[in-house]
Amino acid sequence: MFQQTSDMHDKDEVVIDGLTQKELQATKEFLEEIGLHYSDPDNEPLSWATAVKFLMARKFDVRRAVELFMSHEAVRKGENIHTIDPRDPAVRRELLTEKFTVLPGRDSNGAAIAVFTARHHCITTSTHQVVLKSLIFQLDVALNSQETQRNGLVLIYDMTNSKYSNFDYDLSIKILSMLKGSYPARLKKVLIVTAPLWFKAPFKILRLFVREKLRDRVYTVNINQLSQHLPVSSLPKSFGGKVEVNHKDWIRKCLQVVWEKSSDMDNEIMAYMEDCDNISTPDTGSGLTTPTMDDGSVLSSDLESESSHGTIQEKYSREYKEKELGLSLETSDDAVMTSSPNSPSSLNHLVVVGSNIPLKRSSEPSQMQAQGGDVNPPLPRKKRPNTATTAPTEESIHMPESGGYTVEELLQYCKIKQKKGLCREYTLIRTEPPAGTFEQAKVKANTNKNRYTDVLCMDHSRVHLNTRDSDPHSDYINANFVDGYKQRNAYISTQGPLPRTFGDFWRMVWEQMVLLVVMTTRTVERGRLKCGQYWPPELEDREEYDNFTIINNGVTDFVDYKLTSLILQNNMTGESRKINHLQFLSWPDYGVPHSADAFLRFMHHVRRVQEERTQACSPPWIGHPNGPPILIHCSAGIGRTGTFITVDICTRRLADIGTVNIQKTVRRLRTQRAFSIQMPDQYVFCYLAVLEHAQNVGLIENIDLANFEDSSSDSEC
């Protein structure tokens, strides 16, 4: 059991079963954390070996390993992969096609080498579910090796002789998303071999789905260049190497491990492998192979010219330099990731038949105990009407309820959790998959209406515009109805308008009877365009978009924000309305405000203006006493927008019943506007803003958070 230390450990450190004392302690902490929050009485406890796999993948950082475990559980449910049975005929066929295999050799650093052969994939005959089952089944066996656990995985994506009909963009995203942050293996390098010219465009997008540091490890190479990355002694002969690869031998080994057979010549394994020669790669249809460049690769210089508004994950990676925390989300989340934790589509949970990774079998993801000691998942989503004039009796998802924290309890909670603990709490929320679909946002006619490719609009809560010119897609805008405290459809959360959507934006304002537009960003920050100039900024200026004319009727400057009075004219009907526009200008270029004072003054001014405009309505407003929806946006419509809505809801609840539940509020908010609260520091800011508000209104005298920052806190905060 005891052995001498290898070079990777300290000179005199004792190693037990390949683990140092620190690693053993980390494994115990990981199992305690999983057992405390994520255990399921219907399943066996997580095994020690499985815990080590997740910790190895994150260099025995317990927090990051727990995040990986949560993501591993959360991201697979979407593909409905609950079990992997190699006896299943579809899985057996997929396993034996040689589409995906693990080579017997390793790279110079000891990483395992896996190969995905694109020409063996046919979109019309292979489902994502079956392909993923085959891939995960083989990776689980490869990961039984502690050498692979420590040294990671190199993925070769072989596009030799492949056609466009072989390339499955969605499947590629799912595989990359899983390997980058939802599977316990260190993805060291991706080598794309002999990429055709047509692959350049999708590759630009695919690169956005890998971590920033891994992005520099994605290479497009020809066969001759492979030896610069991998030893010739580990490469197959088809790649100019010396290895005679026998995929059947590898599958026999996998079956031997999973079925716990003493020999790969066991009768059951031999029967499984019978007639495998008759299992051929499906016909991919006719079509010419698109030529590659002269050297068979894609010019790297062409791959670096990314749009500044490609994805929200790219934006935050660039602006905040923070580590991604997993899928959804999004997501994804994300999303969505998920996809990234902020991407809309995602993989999810899995149990492998015969595997030593026992995972949750229930159909619902586990949730950490909510604030106040009650376990309460987000309420079911509700279909939103096409009008904002909801009756006062229609219930919001944010209603008075038991549980939650008083102000004093909230302060103590923050002292105990500290900033690091709140960031971790947010991470658990962020890994949860989206509570809806994004079908309309992904329709080809609507994709260019989305500012970011991974911040989409959930179908069940989206704002429907009135259709025009018999165009069924003219009803789409990237905006969602969001409930407030005791008010259904209190807000419309939307992205910063694009020039092509200015007309749709003002059409939404008109149709939903919006009186107040709240903007929490500047149009340009750090030289980057965050939002189009969709309103005339100077007094008496006017702009015309589609059938609407917008006139600037006055500007009032405050220390931290600006109030603009606008006249919105409907050129089709001749009607006009007064619209107020409040723009917050004191959000810092990086992170969040150090104090919530200016933000809270802005929030209360928003409430006053909404109340004044509602009372001045002619004819009188007959809906909820708080008026029609307040339209709120930032750039993506989820970060600062979600922060504003969360603080507004929580402070209203505090005034009404004396308690708040920030964690539950954010979870419920994300069921209506996916991925709301985009960063951990925004989530922490919500806690501090509520406490500062409580102090301002006399609910607490002193807020002492001297050790809140905690110098050992992780960098994502």
From TrEMBL:
Any GO molecular function: protein tyrosine phosphatase activity
SMART domains: CRAL_TRIO_N, PTPc, PTPc_motif, SEC14
Name of the protein in its database record: Tyrosine-protein phosphatase non-receptor type 9
CDD domains per the UniProt record, alphabetical: SEC14 (cd00170)
PROSITE patterns for the chain: CRAL_TRIO (PS50191), TYR_PHOSPHATASE_1 (PS00383), TYR_PHOSPHATASE_2 (PS50056), TYR_PHOSPHATASE_PTP (PS50055)
Compartment list: Cytoplasm
Main location: cytoplasm
Organism whose genome encodes this protein: Paralvinella palmiformis
